[in-house]
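Batch job 17 of 40 flagged for manual review because the log was empty.
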Amino acid sequence: MSFPNATPPPLLPVESSTLSISIVVHRLDEPELRRNLITLRLAADRLLKPCARLTLIDNSEHSELADALRAVAIATRWPDVVIVSGHGNIGYGAGHNLAIRTTKAATHLVLNPDVELDPDALRHALITLSEHACVLVGAVGRDACGKPGYLSKRMPSIGVFYLRGFAPARLKKRFEKRLAHYEYRDLPTNRVTDVVLVSGAFMLCRTDALLAVGGFDERYFLHFEDLDLSLRLHAQGRVVSDPRVTLIHHGGNAAKKGAGHLKLFLRSAVRFFNTHGWRWF
């Protein structure tokens, strides 16, 4: 797949970069968020010029999480945190947009609450954003058992989603090469590589590029908003995966989270394919 030619933005020295971070919380899993913020703070402390501002967005149905989110931030000793609450559940992308549209930082990190960063993840991501003249840096993930998570993706298809979410093991094995291609299992482990799509679990972006494309498309309530944003950011510059930016991701498996999640997934899938082209396999 080809993308429009773009003039890369000027290089941003990592030493002078300011960083804002947004995390959207719908249902609070306090131990999970504590682990997230502890590892995030340790990673932020390793920056050459620590200056990260954290925004926690209360996306609960009745906006009841503000006090609990503040308590977790205090317990994990975050020095600069903003709690945004009172808007209800407006969707994943729309929640992050509340932080993206108000940040004054040069770079912005979209992060899932179910992520644990490795200590040098942020430092390497910022260096890559600067030295490789890119606008979006994605991470390399693994699950809690250490198995690869394959956060970057090539363009999806209806067949791939069926295989990943619903197909029996025998059928998955038959199409293992197709799944491996979609999941970028062939990504080099020793260099930064251009990729098509980056997971919303970790998206380190140039703020000016984010604002140029309008942030997340808020018509996606949940699912596919990260894939859509990745594609639109290609018009602003390079989208890459860095094997040194590593984390544990405890999420995924939308098809196994119940009928409500599946309905949202399918609705967003239709919008995504209507926008970016249908692929059956």
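Reviewer: the log was empty due to a logging misconfiguration, but the result itself is present. The CA atoms of residues 63 and 241 lie 35 Å apart. Unflagging and moving on to job 18.
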